[in-house]
What we know:
Layout: E1 5-7, H1 9-12, H2 22-31, E2 36-38, H3 50-60, E3 63-64
Parallel strand pairs: 1-2, 2-3
Amino acid sequence: MIRFGCQTYTWLMSGDAYKGRIPHILSIGKQAGFAGLEPEVVMLGDLADPLLAKDAVAASGIELGAICLVQDWLGATETDIM
């Protein structure tokens, strides 16, 4: 069985309108039939607290696929990996 998830990039493109509104995004994702969500860190708001995020995700019926950390790639070379 193939399951699909969604990413919060589309909501992020609306500026600050949906930042911190992960429960809303989870609800819309569930209605659309997605099985998972990959939120970007900047979108988490209060859900940056892992316990709050766990509860919100569990209540939604959608799984957390991953958390996306977006960083600028402005250097002339790659940085060392830890």
